[in-house]
Amino acid sequence: MAFTKISQRFYIALSSDVKTTDGVIKGSICRETDTERECIFDGSVWIILDPVRIAWEHHRVHIGKMWRASKRFGSVDNNSSADIVVNVGLISLHTVFNFAAGGDADWFLYEGTVHDSANAVNVRNASRPTGDTGAPSVFSPAVSDIGTEIHTFFAPGGTAGVAQGTSGNRENEWILKPSTNYLFRITNVAGQAKKMSWDLDFYEAQSF
After folding, report:
1. Degrees (nearest 5) of the Cα angle 145, 167, 185?
2. CATH of the domain spanning 67-204, picked from 1.10.10, 2.60.120, 1.10.287, 3.40.50
3. Angstrom distance (rounded) from CA 145 to CA 111
4. Which end of the chain has a smaller Cβ tally under 10 Å, C or N?
5. Is the distance from CB of 80 to CB of 185 less than 8 angstroms?
């Protein structure tokens, strides 16, 4: 077997093969098929990874495939919503989220949303040396069709001037399918205008 490129950042080889460095992207992985060892390219040389296993999500941070988006909404009227739309590209995205609201709130997730391209939300790579090129598209847009509701719940936080606020998250992932738009919506039902915010983490489902 020769040193073989499988995808943009993933290679296979035998332990005895010479691992090429020309044209290889920093953070790429090479798996030795005869030893099951994995090597990572640090931009100059291939380094054998410590066999101690790390969480998959943590690994995605290391190779520059974990993205983070957040947005604060300073004043959301009663019965109005704070919306974030994630446009999934050709590769599935695994996502978890956190939200906060200044009072009672309804939470929704919709699939197949139609929207304009206004109010792009900054998306940052969790690996800052990697940079933000190639980030998924996220918006806080005008929505013309919410799509299909796939999940909802109520988050109690109180009403009017006695509201204490609320927050919520989903630690277990949603896997968002390719070429599909997803609307994350918090609706204020606290009886008066409240602050709200979103914080989303997502990583590409492709192995490498």
Report:
1. 5
2. 2.60.120
3. 10
4. N
5. no
Q: In this structure, which amino acid lies at residue 84?
A: I
115 vs 182: CA distance, rounded Å: 10
In the chain, residues under CATH classification 2.10.10 are 4-53
Question: Contacts by 12-21 with C-beta closer than 8 Å and gap 24+?
Answer: 19/46, 21/45, 21/46
**What pTM did the predictor assign?**
0.73
* Ranges in the chain annotated CATH 2.60.120: 67-204
The Cα 130–Cα 63 span in angstroms is 8
Residue with tokens 């005869």: 34
CA-CA distance, 98 to 36, in Å (whole number)?
A: 37
What is the structure's pLDDT at 69?
Answer: 96
| 155, 168 contact by CB (below 8 A) | yes
SS3 79: coil
Q: Is it true that domain 4-53 has CATH number 2.10.10? A: yes
Phi (first) and psi of residue 152, to 5 degrees? -160, 155
Name the token pair of 102. Answer: 């200044």
